[in-house]
Amino acid sequence: MSTRLATQGRLVNRDKAVRFSFNSAPMTGYEGDTLASALLANDQMLVGRSFKYHRPRGIVAAGPEEPNALVNLGVEGKFEPNQRATTTELFEGLLATSQNHWPSLEFDVGAINAKLSRFMPAGFYYKMFIHPRPLWKHVYEPFIRQAAGLGQAPKGRDWDTYEHLYAFCDVLVVGGGIAGLQAARSAAQSGAQVLVLEQTAHWGGRAPVDGGTVDGKPVDKFVEELVADLAELPNVTLRARTMGAGVYDHGYVLGYERLTDHTPDMDGPRHRLWRIRAGHIITATGAIERPLSFAGNDIPGVMLAASVRDYAINYGVSAGDRTVVVTNNDDAYRTALVLKNVGLEVPAILDARVLPVDSPLMAEAKAAGIRVMMGHGVAKVQGAKRVTGVSVCAQAGEGATVEEIACDVVAMSGGWSPVVHLWSHCGGKLFWDADWAMFRPDVDKAPIGADGSPFVSPAGSANGHFGLTEILGDAHAMGRAAARATGFTPKKTNAPDGVCLDEAPMAPVWLMPQGAGRDLRAKAWLDYQNDVKVSDVQLAAQEGFESVEHAKRYTTLGMATDQGKLSNINGLAILSDALNQPIPQTGTTTFRPPYTPISMGAIGGEARGDVFQPIRRTPMHDWHDANGADWEPVGHWRRPYAYVRSGESVHDAVMRETKNVRENLGLLDASTLGKLIVKGPDAGRFLDMLYTNMMSTLKPGKCRYGLMCGENGFLIDDGVVARIDEDTFLCHTTTGGAERIHAHMEEWLQTEWWDWQVYVANVTEQYAQVAVVGPNARKALEALGGMDVSKDALGFMGWADGTLGGFAVRAYRISFSGELSYEIAVRASEGQAFWDALMKVGTDLGVMPYGTEALHILRAEKGFIMIGDETDGTVIPQDLGLHWALSKKKDDYLGKRAHLRSHMADPARWKLVGLESTDGSTLPDGAYAVAEGTNANGQRNMQGRVTSSYHSPNLNKGIAMGLVLHGPDRMGEVLEFPGTDGTTYKAKIVSPVFYDPDGEKQNV
Description:
1004 residues, alpha+beta, Ubiquitin-like (UB roll), FAD/NAD(P)-binding domain, seven-stranded mixed sheet, six-stranded mixed sheet, 52 strands
């Protein structure tokens, strides 16, 4: 029977009781408890049911490796499923419920699956639900969906908040155990900026539990002093309750911090996602104890030996009164000694090793009166919903029971596995240490950064060291090396001298299933959550699933929420034994981030509700809103579609604005256009590869229109490029394209041309930009005064810096309307003031703002394409008659080789033309032109489609652009376009340039 120990509990405050409930039953714990320790203290051994067979499950571990104790926490609005009781800190009013059972935890109908287990072996689902196929949709799929998953998905809104935080450091230490703290101090003494992450609320890891001395002081005292020293250093940041979730390329690390999980009534975000850039990373992530495989090793009360002593020392909780320890290594003897010293019974230590072992811990256990049975193991655990005893068998032989021992806890230890997950995330290699039966980091094959040098180092137990002296020495060396790798000179200091309880290394461990676990009929469990047995892995090997990855998927071994932290190594050992090959030949599965699950809220951060997709506003947004703007979403921006005056329709406003631009003066807020600075000695060379035409020959002070294709040759963006100086270009993109094209540029710089000296910055929101358009455009700028904007001083496709009306500006002489036009860029903070100044000087010049629809009509009158209208992801420049923009002076650019494919050069590709309705009406957008005959599906053949269509008030008729089969060769032909309302429209093929074909107006 589990209970509180009077003399233990270093992490709990017995003066402060905490009330909570489990499955509606009121319980009491103490401040400092985890939910798991409090449940054990209340003798709640049964905490859940397994996924497949709904077998009773109890607490196995004390940390994030726990596979069984997953609970629902809270109520709707504050509800979160699948939370580990072992890492959940207890707080007043905590509400927890168990998962994966019906109607109750004690009586679960799903347990009938265990009776049918012989009919549901590994691979059952794959085989069963393939045939007959007609049963899939209405029988199999609903059944599988109903059975899938653990916990209960929240349905209501999450009322908590979350945030992201960016951090930069020279050395990042993941792990706040004694190795991480020592590595941090050794690195910090050089002057390096050090950030330390520890996933629990406490520092020191296992060291204060396992004891020992450092420099003559108890290890827990040494840890306290070490933390105090680090806290005083200005170049060290310590973050508890923060897990290193994943390590990525270029020293990028995700951290996951739990802020108010344990204090839900406090204000502030619940979780924080850290985005960290580090010069060097030290993974001091410790090690995880492995379970042993024997019949009944999943019964509640069978626990990891180290976890049993964790609960005793840290929380003052005994998992039971009588504990049998079963082990294949020295470490579990510590647990037996701890339990014996607090007055609990340890009837026997079953040690699987048959050879004599010279161990101080063993000697101490024998001296304490504990019976040690060498060469023995567990044949079977007795009990159903909790342990009542064990059947003991000899390790050698057929596993016959030689003795039965009554107990209520089985503390098992199969050795230790370094936590190599973070080391492996970005390519760190492992090697098999046969002496210790574990995979450990191969430090000679560390993850390599862009400069060709390692940027991740393991330390302490994560590096395969387990003696206190070894751990401190290794951590000290790794801390100094990390400082040196980031350009700091380590000071000449020595690592502390550690004296461990067992100065001699622990004896090598075995990885054979114990006792009756060798029998295929016995249920010796590997993966507790997914109900994977030893026999399942053996069956996978028998059926030809010899690859470790295939066996994993066939059996679901290691696919539970603990991601194989307890099951993987034992599973590999079983598979290797079945294949009669060594473990290194079998290999390991792939470790992927995050190390343990992180909340969806933390991933989203602030991006929820109104800020899930923030509306982007230009500096002039409020002015537009106050002056009748009818808003249109363009990407994440809101742009005025038109400015509607009192008494007029949106259509009337569009017509008015379009005519006014051609006749007087129009102002367009063009601030939303993407603006990317591309800078560096290789900038011209880089842009030559991105654009289809030459950019490196562009002269400073000049602009050039450019097309951009993807690798597949299809158009992805267009815009005007201005050369600022020899090494600097400013690339304009479409409104919705800035982030996408920025990412496109960065991807190529990082993956293909990583050695080119080019820097790209997105400055879209740093500038407000106003298009000043129409016959009176130059007059308006001259009225502002300050710089020469004449044709001779600032010709078409030129730009100049200067001053207009007292504003520092960059004036581009470019036009998307075919009219005399300037685009003026000013600082974003001055955007509204500059707009106001233009409106004032334009009063006598017929000034009107115009929106995006007038912009579209004006560009269509001139035959200018619009990305997203004339393009749909399958259009190439040749389709749009833009052969002139495909440079013949350079050997290559993105998309050039794709343009050589037969499909791209097919003369039957539809080409851009103008379309003019025969009766002056406006063609429907997207309408298709029909041709003679039908296709194989009985549908009418098509020979073209409308890409954009408008009524032009300047031409007083409907105009359109479209892609038509052999279009440029069919001028004057009339095509039919059936409408969705049954109306058939007729349009003549004409030039796409409807207005001012010689460009005289834009060149004045």
